[in-house]
């Protein structure tokens, strides 16, 4: 799943597309490279990001959704019900829910749904919730919400542990180590680690130099049984998966 951010403030400058033409071309290139889907977001969720109004988010994403839906599966990355509804009306087929509250919307619309632990914008850098057992707690939350989405009528549901969303570096690494347990659950798993800040904790690399770290996570994720990898770098990710399949198929 490729990432197209129609924002001026996403955490990696090269993933920001501020015009319709730039965003559509980026999404087309991802589809052409072999992406199964493209995820479109109009509000940054990085630490310190400034929330935007629903109207502003709609203005940013709807033309992009409508254009890219002609080429393949489009997901909308949002925390607002109004945005999810309008994006589906424009052609999106998956609600990638960063609020943990949009399962009823996805169910009513009969589209796909990604269940992720709820968080708010702005995320405060360096402030993390405390978990009794981060893997067990997150698994319970995303599975319960996924169950609700199915009950409401969502066509297909994935669970996402929400790497990097208000979690400490240690919690992120623990969640990655425990991916095999999550993948043994009742729902397919979506994972987003692309260029995130926890990679800096391990490698010391700035966001522009985190491709290698991002790709390194793919091997254990693939081995664990993760179904969808959400990334900025589609060709490099697909090459990595192709090699893993060729060696261990």
Automatic annotation (TrEMBL):
Catalytic activity: (7,8-dihydropterin-6-yl)methyl diphosphate + 4-aminobenzoate = 7,8-dihydropteroate + diphosphate
The UniProt record lists the keyword Repeat: no
Biological or metabolic pathway of the protein: Cofactor biosynthesis; tetrahydrofolate biosynthesis; 7,8-dihydrofolate from 2-amino-4-hydroxy-6-hydroxymethyl-7,8-dihydropteridine diphosphate and 4-aminobenzoate: step 1/2
Cofactors (names): Mg(2+)
Any single GO BP term: tetrahydrofolate biosynthetic process
Pfam families: Pterin_bind (PF00809)
Keyword Signal: no
Annotated EC: 2.5.1.15
Alphabetized GO MF terms: dihydropteroate synthase activity; metal ion binding
Stretches assigned to the Pterin-binding domain: 1-242
Alphabetical keyword list: Folate biosynthesis, Magnesium, Metal-binding, Transferase
Domain of life: Bacteria
GO cellular component, one term: cytosol
Membrane spanning stretches: none
Family named by the database record: Belongs to the DHPS family.
PANTHER family referenced in this protein's UniProt entry, alphabetically: FOLATE SYNTHESIS PROTEINS, FOLIC ACID SYNTHESIS PROTEIN FOL1
Name this protein carries in UniProt: dihydropteroate synthase
Underlying gene: folP_1
